[in-house]
Structures are given as C-alpha cells and as structure tokens.
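job 3f2a | input accepted
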Amino acid sequence: MRIGIGYDIHPQQGGRPLVLGGVVIPAPQGLSGHSDADVLTHAIMDALLGAAGLGDIGQHFPASDPAYAGARSLGLLAEVAAMVGKAGFAVVNIDAAVIAQEPQLAPHIHQMREEVARSLGLPTSQVSVKAKSPEGLGALGRGEGIACIAVALLQEA
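job 3f2a | predicted structure (157 res):
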C-alpha cells in the first residue's frame, strides 16, 4: 500500500468558468491557471503521482508547455491514472477536501465524485469529495482563491 498527498491553490479570476472535478460550477469568477485551473483534479493528480513515486503534475504537464494551455484537467487525470497503472499500482481510493468561501459546493459534490471516478476508471464509492469553508479567514476566506487537499491510497496491482 502507498499513500500520497496532493495540494493545489489558484487565485480567482473573472472571465473564466469555475471548474472543480470537471464540473462547471455557476459562479461569478473562475480560477486563474494555464489549464482549466481545476484545483480539485490537480490535487488528486499530485496525490496519485506522489503515492506512485512519479513526481508531480508540474513535471508531467508543465505550465510552460503550450500543449497544456486550457487543457481539461480530467483528461490529464486519466493520463495520470494510466501512468500509475503502468508503474504497477491500482487506485484503492481518493479523499479530497475543497476549501472555498464561495460558492456553495454541496449541490455539485456528487457530480464531481462521478466525474473524477469516471476519469480514474473507479466506482464513485471509491472517491470522496468534501467542501470546507475557511470561515472568512485569510485570502481564501476573503474569496481570493480556492484550494484543495487530496489523499490517494494505492496498492500494488
């Protein structure tokens, strides 16, 4: 068994959709980033890569590479799942917490879980996503960005 942790944070930016777990969330602002800036999916990718000892998403999908400009993070997640499988591991489960003051994410959690699970080739029951409020504290509490922490458990295939 191998455990990995992932973290991602992006500042808010107007004129972009807010994408979390591949789901477009109704919000006045999206997140700034080279790809679709999906902090949930990015944190999960880093957790998976870390657990498998394969580095991080910046090594595999660098922001300096124009090929990833505007990339859909769920597609990159599927690539990471293939890398993890090729390294000899199977995903046991994912647990993630999105930290955002706004918008309310609870109505979208199930769809986020389904999209992440689909990209990983897992049943939805093996993917947990939670929404947590920073309770008005710091930059996240002021609504300046959104962050996510994720944990992945792998087993040798």
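job 3f2a | The radius of gyration is 15 Å.
job 3f2a | closed
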